[in-house]
Amino acid sequence: MAQGQWLKKRLLIILLLTTAALILGLQTFLPAKHSPTPIAKTAPIAAMTFSPSLPPTVVPDRLFRQVQSLAFERYTPAQRQQARDYIVAELQAAGWVPSLIPFQGGVNILAQRPGQVRTSNSLLVAAHYDTVAGSPGADDNASGVATVLEIAHLFAQQSTARPLQLAFFDLEEQNLQGSFAFANDPQQRADLAGVIVLEMLGFACHTPGCQRQPQGLPITPPSDKGDFLVVVGDTEHLPLLQSFAQPPPDLPAVLALPTPMKGLLTPDLLRSDHAPFWYQEIGAVMVTDTANFRNPHYHQPSDTPDTIDRPFLSGAAQLVVNATARLLSQSTPLTTPAQ
Asked: Source organism's superkingdom (predicted)?
């Protein structure tokens, strides 16, 4: 067989295997007609134990106020310092003790609190706080930062089985530098059970055809309208994806994408801060409104708070809060069970 024919055949086989893995992965957690499988019980914890069936409720006005406060260009060192000062002040006001973690060229922010099960590893919820030059970044990514800050307010006094970490990454727009620095540090990643990365949560479009999809994605979105969230996760850690399954009918629909081979054949799924954790074999999901596949203001001066769909953002934030609550209520590993 000629070398060119052999290569084409090999690529076809890889694509077929990828498609099969994606379909099989979807079947493991897409909404079913029967009741969802109950979350495994853990050892009893303190009197303030959080119940995943009653997650805290997002405060929409507070959430949007955070977006408005952060909607300025966050590109130069001085601009990013201004954003850091705001984030640190908000964390402190919510009762957290944030730390600054410098790396070459930037500074990450980390806040954490312990869980009740000492042997349990942490859940990290993260968003990047920088922007490209010339954009105020209301959706990209003040919406993600605002949601992490909302989690800080809602979970500050909650006792949960699993420890919770909150991170705000610098320089995502410059080759994911902040998340690479974090994930590549053995000390920072040593205690992680899984990661939820928030990448643009506030834009929705409701006209037919306004939603596009990446090339090579072997699945069709639920609608050609941009009124749903996408959750991208690696197939080795499906419990992270399962935490977003079966959303209530009053919240945005969720398209979950279990991604085999660490996204090798779908590079558009590697464009955010979850990717460095995949490369370190740490389970991570990215939650997104699909960015430039929906939002015409992506990386533009027009990415302003008035373009945010406030009900959609509140619903997206509530979905993240619900998933966070489910994952914090457990102390078991978040790896995919062996078949």
From this structure: Bacteria
